[in-house]
Amino acid sequence: MAAAIFEAELSAEQAADLARLMDEGRSTRPAGVVVATLLYDGVLARLVAVWQNSAVLDAYLAETDVPRGLELMRKVGAEPRMTIVDVLEHA
């Protein structure tokens, strides 16, 4: 498995808007996403999208102009940093 992490500083209102957008877009989530989670500590938001594997994520990134997490964060006025990591355990 692999994860795409989109990280940006957000206000509480922006984070709530992002959570709403994620919920509204659940049915159109990219097919290879196993789960997407929004983590927020009051300042820093992390949208974590866990993918079936790195090959599926790589194929998605190669065919899309703007990754979904980047698109959603931009809709709430943020420009996130994107990191790709391996997922070693998912229960």
Summarize the main sheet: 4 strands, antiparallel
Question: What's the pLDDT, averaged over the residues?
Answer: 97
CATH class: Alpha Beta
The proportion of strand residues reads 25-35%
Look up the CATH topology: Alpha-Beta Plaits
Which radius of gyration do the C-alpha atoms yield? 12 Å
Strand order of the largest sheet: 2-3-1-4
3D shape = globular
List unreliable stretches of 5+ residues: none
Helix run count? 3
Characterise the protein shown here.
The protein has one domain: 2-Layer Sandwich (Alpha-Beta Plaits), CATH 3.30.70. With 91 residues, it is of the alpha+beta class. The protein is 34% helix and 33% strand. The protein contains 3 helices and 4 strands, in the order βαββααβ. β2 and β3 form a beta hairpin.
Concise account of the structure shown:
With 91 residues, the chain is of the alpha+beta class.
Features:
about 90 residues; Alpha-Beta Plaits; alpha+beta; 3 helices
Secondary structure blueprint with pairings:
Layout: E1 2-9, H1 12-24, E2 33-40, E3 44-51, H2 54-63, H3 68-75, E4 81-86
Antiparallel strand pairs: 1-3, 1-4, 2-3
